Amino acid sequence: MRIGFDAKRAFLNNTGLGNYSRDAIRVLSHFYADNKYFLYTPKDKENSRLPFLKDSKNTFVRTPQSLINKALKSYWRSKSIVRDLFTNKIDIYHGLSNELPLGIEKTNIKTVVTIHDLIFIRYPHLFRMIDRKIYYKKFKSACLRANKIIAVSQQTKQDIIDFFFIPEKKIEVVYQGCNSIFQNEITANNKQETQIKYNLPKDYLLYVGSIEERKNLLTLLKTLKELTNQKLVVIGNGKAYKIKCLRFISEHNLSNRVVFLSDLEIEEMAAIYQSAQMLIYPSIFEGFGIPILEALFSKTPVITSKGGCFSEAGGPTTKYISPLSVEQMKAAILEIQNSSDLQKEMQTKGFDYAQNFTDDKIANNLMRIYTSL
Questions:
Q1: Of 263, 273, 266, 270, whose CA–CA distance to 233 is shortest?
Q2: pLDDT score for 305
Q3: Structure pTM?
Q4: E strands, 96-241, where?
Q5: Domain 2-177+358-372 architecture
Q6: In the chain, which residues have pLDDT < 50?
């Protein structure tokens, strides 16, 4: 088959949607090497998280070619790309991040769209009105026109049914995986080098994710204030909400107990995961929650939120709490720290549960949908 991908975020985004796009392309091109994979991106930007493309003989990067498409990249991606797909004889086009180009439904190209979440509908106050309207129109249009919809969790599938009134039979749940670097043991030497490079404490709690209101870092900082001398490493970046968090840190003299990191190499992230006491992921709502999976593969205990999709990602031995409760978060942290038996159980059984999300399983599930079309 000749399979096309909306690969914009694979090249230009290093957070959730970018990670999903890169991993989908990587596992499919590896496990189903006989196919040809065309990566459509407005800009062929070098990305250190796409090293597999250099030696790949079955992946082909495609960018806008005409002067008008180069000048109007958004228009190319949302509409005029269809002509390129037809020229490249694409059999199946997969919109990896909630969108499909207009007019593709009038061709014989089969289409799949991945819907990651409908948070903008559930929590409208977190988004600008103009953004909500654009997302609603794009996401619903893609769902209506696609031959098949992939939801990244049962929670997202139910939201698609409830909010867009899409028939259940049109939607398949295919869980996300994570970068293979997290699935392998990082050497002690590499861990030490990373610790020295970023001046990390010997023992620390870990938070990974964008620093925004929905991700709820502030509750974790309030909990840290109650835990004397404990240290926290934060991997992520943000804007207004980060300023709010920094103000709290300053007002409560936590500056020497919190380390902020961003723009890390993926190997450095894996080393930090594997050296952490635990990951605390107190998000209010997610489509899936890849950091939970990254931690389980790293044999790092996880504390995350009750309800939603979190138990789908975290499995039976993750600790689930009310994400806005300082008391529950503090109790869960201390319970894990004070029991080596519990730590070992969470590490071992969490890693076992993560085997449900290995590269081969993700690739097989995606290909099953493609071949069904």
A1: 273
A2: 97
A3: 0.90
A4: 110-115, 148-151, 171-173, 205-208, 232-235
A5: 3-Layer(aba) Sandwich (3.40)
A6: none
